[in-house]
Design a protein that fits this description.
This protein has 326 residues and is an alpha+beta fold. It is built from 9 helices and 13 strands. The strands form 3 sheets. Strands 1, 2, 3, 6, 7, 10, 11, 12 and 13 form a 9-stranded mixed sheet that branches. Strands 4-5 form a two-stranded antiparallel sheet. The protein has a two-stranded parallel sheet with strand order 8-9.
Length: 326
């Protein structure tokens, strides 16, 4: 049987396109969140699994919202540390195994959810889980104690510093914060409206280049379109860099360390101590919680030797009362 050349060509074209599509599909889980291959969910029985990267993906909501024994609202800065933390916590307290629920969105957005009674909507899905513990920067935690959402005391446990996240190999040859002023450089920067890290970044930009540098990065370049503000920088900044949408972004050092450990095409540029800003992480029990015992156990655990050892895997440092930070 003779096969016409145009049919062969069409078949080869189709096969080539199918191969590209399969390659892209195969790569998608590596580049698109979630990045931990299901580890950030302690449910023993997950039922029907349905995750489609870039289409249906709830990367920052973990566990089962149906009557958890402990609910944690965690600033997204260490979403990657939660899986080993939860695993170790459940080993210490087996009665909580598979019964934790946690969210890892920016602290300001978590406060909005608390004020909405714990109700959140993502896409077409709405659910309600009130928190037992709120974990964010020390100043943010103290602020919510003052507003009455949390009860004292604020419990500090770890610290972190800033870095410049860039593509592997640093193709734009970024050497420091002052380079971020270049109009040609595409930046992904946390939104000051609800991402607490933005305050520390602004302080570091001023240390490196005065108010002029901070204004250039956060105002002039935003107006020009060469700085794009994120809604959830711990997901968007690395993803945009890997997609080529951004050349760089200032993040916490631990976030860059995680991306490197995950094998993603990401690296970082150190910021000298004289220009850097230290964050102090803290937590507090939510006022009126019905899980006060579990909440206190979590706060005790994350500042224990075992909990802090997990944080240190990603570059965090244990909190020292003599340290100054924000």
């Amino acid at each position: 049987m003779l096969i016409k050349p145009n049919i062969v060509a069409a078949a080869l074209l189709f096969a080539g396109a199918a191969g590209i599509a399969m390659a892209q599909t195969a790569k998608a889980p590596e580049l698109s969140p979630p990045w931990q291959h299901g580890e950030n969910n302690d449910q023993a029985s997950r039922g029907f699994e349905f995750t489609v990267p870039d289409a249906d993906n709830l990367a920052d909501f973990h566990g089962n919202p149906d009557h958890p024994a402990l609910s944690l609202y965690v600033g997204g800065n260490y979403f990657f540390a939660m899986a080993p933390l939860v695993k170790a916590f459940e080993a210490k307290y087996p009665e909580y195994k598979g019964r934790l629920y946690w969210e890892t969105i920016p602290p300001g957005l978590l406060v909005k959810q608390m004020k909405a009674g714990g109700t959140v909507t993502v896409g077409n899905m709405t659910w309600t889980v009130k928190p037992d513990v709120y974990l964010a920067g020390l100043k943010a935690v103290k602020k919510q104690i003052d507003t009455g959402l949390l009860q004292a005391p604020a419990v500090p446990y770890a610290t972190n510093t800033l870095t410049i996240m860039v593509a592997a190999g640093n193709p734009m040859q970024i050497a420091g914060l002052s380079d971020l002023s270049k109009p040609s450089l595409k930046l992904a920067m946390p939104n000051p409206e609800f991402e607490g890290i933005a305050r520390q970044i602004e302080a570091s930009l001023e240390k490196a280049g005065g108010k002029a540098l901070e204004t250039q990065v956060y105002e002039t370049k935003v107006g020009q379109g060469s700085t794009e503000l994120t809604h959830i920088h711990h997901r968007q900044t690395p993803l945009w860099i890997m997609q080529g949408r951004a050349d760089a972004g200032v993040t916490w050092q631990s976030e860059a360390v995680f991306q490197e450990q995950a094998g993603h095409p990401i690296t970082h540029v150190d910021i000298p101590a004289s220009q850097n800003t230290t964050a102090i992480y803290a937590g507090a029990i939510v006022k009126g919680t019905s899980h006060a015992k579990a909440a206190q156990r979590w706060l005790d655990f994350i500042r224990s030797e075992q909990g802090l050892a997990i944080f240190e895997r990603y570059g965090f440092k244990p909190y020292d009362a003599s340290q100054r930070g924000s």
